[in-house]
Amino acid sequence: MEVMKSGDSKFRLSKIATNDEHGENSPYFDGWKAYDNDPFHPTLNPNGVIQMGLAENQLSLDLIEEWIKKNPSASICTSEGIHAFKNIALFQDYHGLPEFRNGVAKFMTKARGGRVSFDPNRIVMAGGATGANELLMFCLADPGDGFLIPSPYYPAFNRDLRWRTGVQLVPIMCQSSNNFQITENALEEAYQNAKKANINIKGLILANPSNPLGTTLDKTTLKKLVTFTNDKQIHLVCDEIYAATVFRAPVFVSISEIIEEMECDRSLIHIVYSLSKDMGLPGLRVGIVYSYNDAVVSSGRKMSSFGLVSSQTQRLASRYDSFIKGLDKMDIQCLKSNAGLFCWMDLRPLLKEPTFEGEMGLWRMIISDVKLNVSPGSSFHCHEPGWFRVCFANMDDETLEIALRRIRMFVGKHKQVEEQAKKKSWRERNLKLSFSSLILYDDQTMTPSPHSPIPQSPLVSAKT
Predict the structure, then answer these.
(1) Which of 2, 184, 335, 445 registers the highest number of CB atoms within 10 A of its CB?
(2) 221 and 329: one domain?
(3) CATH number for position 244
(4) Do 173 and 383 form a contact (C-beta atoms < 8 A)?
(5) Helices (H) then strands (E): counts for the chain
(6) What does residue 314 show for φ and ψ, rounded to 5 degrees?
(7) Per its record, what are the GO molecular function terms (predicted)?
């Protein structure tokens, strides 16, 4: 019997399975691999890599545990709630349990300060925000179509939005000179450049609050974005999974509030939400698409069959402040932010050269020597080298202090090396000056050079 080789055409995998659009070769995921290979543990592996590349909220789990203890009938894992186990374990309609959709709608309202309400019938359930974002792309765009997106942006959007859908992401260039705000000029330039490249733009997608910046968009900016997308008749997708992580002013403004205040085509507006960040429950894989478009809700529910869902802010502010203050003592600055589970750290002063090669060199040093998994800005498609995203809510206080101590030692060594280099440069410069003054004289007669700025002594010039 002939054995067919793996290279035979019958055994080749699909283009989707073998292309590089997943983005797994990004430094963002490389940092995770470094952590997986050498994870930090306070006693078993105290010199291991500390995970600061995972935007996970572990600061509210004790509150959830306490709530379950006080409400045992709400959990199928208690004797008081075990009677509901059968209903949860059996197959459920892909529309989602009505009770659950009602609860999600109420929670979305609460997370937005009660300023706007949500209709449970417009909620489409998905397997986490990853599944929700991809589901929307399948509904709104065909392979080859484009979506505008402000940069820097979440690295895994390449996987979530592009990999299987074939959709192209077109960056809107945002600069540190104005704190990475979205300008109308940058928006229009990205749109026109896409048209020149024959990319059919179907929409604009953004994360608000921003990942990785940890900032929120104000009403003025959001209204401009709605006006822009309405004028172009393209979709606006707002990923609001960090809505309840805002820990200080300004308050978060949802796109759902904006469309209540202005005339627009609501069928172009869509929201992505989940329980992963605000509730700190990423393991439950609860993703939500909330669309004002009836056709999207209908088709989205059909597509959700492939990713069904199984049937704290004060603490964040305190953790953010302690981390930022620790960095500030080392003269490390971060973009001023008010939301999210991370900060946008400016390490440009530590770069050997202001290039992305310099950024990658610094990142490799932080991973291998400092043993911290932080994510370089280039993996977020930032167009300026030297920015890094650092997550601060996925560890206990003791681990955070160890991380700060490692950063402090690294910065201290960097300053020491810099100081030694300055001293060496100063010595070499002075030695060169001393040597230059000596060669102004003739080697044999010690007669000053006619070009010497030093006056000639009469004793030297006298003839014997």
Answers:
(1) 335
(2) no
(3) 3.40.640.10
(4) yes
(5) 15, 13
(6) -65, -40
(7) 1-aminocyclopropane-1-carboxylate synthase activity; pyridoxal phosphate binding; transaminase activity
**Residue 92: inside a domain:** yes
With contact defined as beta carbons under 8 Å apart, do 141 and 165 qualify? yes
Token duo for residue 70:
């006080």
Asked if residues 170 and 194 have their Cβ atoms less than 8 Å apart, the reply is yes
Q: Whole-model pTM?
A: 0.84
- The one-letter code for the residue type at 413 is K
DSSP states along 432-443 = HHHHHHHTTB-T
C-beta of residue 378 within 8 angstroms of C-beta of residue 358: no
Count CA atoms closer than 13 A to 322's CA, side-chain side.
18
Q: What's the domain count of the chain?
A: 2
Q: Whole domain around residue 269: which residue ranges?
A: 62-306
- CA distances to 192, 327, 361, 379, 460 from 368, in Å: 42, 20, 11, 18, 63
CA 240 to chain centre: 14
At 131-176, the pLDDT tens digits run 899 999 999 999 999 999 999 999 999 999 999 999 999 999 999 9
Residues 6+ apart with CB under 8 A from 366: 372, 374, 388, 410
Listed residues 414, 429, 444: the one ending a domain: 414
Token match 């090669």: residue?
357
Whether residue 327 sits in one domain with residue 228:
no
Token digits of residue 308:
């069904």
Pair 311, 285: CB distance under 8 Å:
no
pLDDT digits (tens, 9 = 90+) for 101-120: 898 899 899 989 899 999 99
Question: What are the phi and psi torsion angles at 72 (to 5°)?
Answer: -60, -25
Sign of CA dihedral 34, 36, 38, 41: positive
Instruction: Kindly give the parts of the chain with pLDDT less than 70.
Output: 1-11, 88-95, 304-313, 421-464
Closest CA to 221 of 189, 190, 178: 178
Bond from prior residue into 450 cis (ω within 30 degrees of 0): no
Structure tokens that stand for 395 in this block: 């560890």
> Which uninterrupted H or E stretch holds 32?
helix 27-37
Cα-based torsion angle of the residue sequence 305, 307, 313, 316 in order, rounded to the nearest 10 degrees: -170
The two structure tokens encoding residue 407:
């950063």
pLDDT confidence of residue 450: 46
For 329-396, where are the alpha helices, taking DSSP H only?
Answer: 356-365
3-class SS of residue 71: coil
Q: CA-CA distance, 59 to 418, in Å (whole number)?
A: 38
Q: What pairing do the DSSP bridges indicate for beta strands 168-173 and 146-151?
A: parallel
263-314 pLDDT per residue, tens:
999 999 999 999 888 877 777 788 899 999 999 998 888 776 565 554 466 7
Position 337 in a domain: yes
Looking at residue 306, what is its pLDDT? 60
SS (H, E, C) 120-157: HHHEEEEEHHHHHHHHHHHHHCCCCCEEEEEECCCCCH
User: Which residue is it, tokens 């290979």?
Assistant: 37
The residues annotated as belonging to the active site are 154, 239, 241, 277
